[in-house]
Amino acid sequence: MSTYNLRRFAQPDVLKHIQQDNLITFLKRYEDYLTGRDFSFDLDEDGELDFETLCQVLMNPSEAMDIEFVEALFFIQEMSDDEHFEELSEQAEANNIAVHEDSTAADLALALWLYDPELLKRPHAEVMILKPKSFMYFQSDQKSPDTFALPKPETMRTLEADMDTWFLNNKRGTGCRILPVSAEDEDKTYFLIRHGMPFKREGKIESGQSKTIFYRPEFHDVIVYDRANNELAVFNKSGAKKERTMYLDLFSQHLFGQAEYFPGAEKYTLQPLIDNGVDALACADIDGLEDIKLVEIQHQFLGPYNDKQTLRSNDVFASLESRDREFPNFGRLVSASFSVKFENAKRPRMVKVRTPNVANFDRKEDSHLIETWLRKRGFVNEQKEEEDSTQPVTHQESHDAVSIAAMA
């Protein structure tokens, strides 16, 4: 379970906005613990609970606190902000859960938990999928399938069992779970993987005494299958290469029926920056992008010292031109950062590409447009089946198109 931290949720103003009857029903499940911490369910003269004491109890849990209580509070807090209101409302309606017209997101989260905790756990898992912004990409060397359906539950259970074997052999325990989520608008399928990590030992103070606790941390990894490009994007929080290789091997076997379906070949190249200069940044042919600037490059040098040289600028190409300098062509170009201005965005957002397989986005929703741009400008090594059907666009044409659009 994630760290217990209720600073946002355990505030009187927040708790007062939850329908009190539902809140009392929920808290009564843990009455012994709460009353043992000097909280009373008696209402004051205004008909309200003692929210001040309740917040103090929730903010300062004791050893006697039921783990189910911790879990419930965690999920309710995570899903009780306004951005999840519509989704929670739809869940309540789909399950015929009666809610007041003036219900808040916290009301809905609590009502769903009281009805069935899984109704809150699943959308929370989907939120977790959106958090990682840095993935390693692995292309298949085979033709993209025409369709890709969500794997059947029995396929997922078999995949989990094989993963558990690897996790157990690598001191991460068993009990991994995979949640597949289809994003049809992106033609992608997301897989949220929950698993344990090696045991940790930490000291703690209990009743004034120094003691030791042992626990197994919980990690969430994300794997994304992109059907259109027939590739797998992997985010594994540990960063362990062996773990990443395991994901590639098992997903290849269980979902595509053959070993090494994703062989791990290099996806990204930064050669267009060397060959095409500023024209490699052209984006006029991609709806949704206004302007792209190169703001950082890093070169790596051969030798025993792992020497690297980084050049940062508000605009690398403009800076080089102003000083009558050529684009650096020494060492090996290993990473590049771009400042990308999206349509209707107030500020540019950062995108970083690191060869051979890593891309980092400020926002997950940026990935589709950036991926399209990277492919059109030649930053993605083509698969065997791909044919170059795009026409080159210059950076000047890109700026001309933006200017014309602004004048229209």
Widest sheet: strand ordering: 2-3-6-7-1-12-11-10-8-9
Cα shape: globular
Number of domains: 3
The helix fraction, in percent, is 25-40%
Q: What's the total count of β strands?
A: 12
Number of helices: 14
Mean pLDDT: 85
Low-confidence stretches: 386-391, 398-408
> If you compute it from the alpha carbons, what radius of gyration comes out, rounded to the nearest whole angstrom?
26 Å
Give the terminus-to-terminus CA distance. Answer: 54 Å
Please summarize the sheet with the most strands. Answer: 10 strands, antiparallel
The portion of residues forming beta strands comes to 15-25%
Could you give the order of the helices and strands? HHHHHHHHEHEEEEEEHHEEHEEEHH
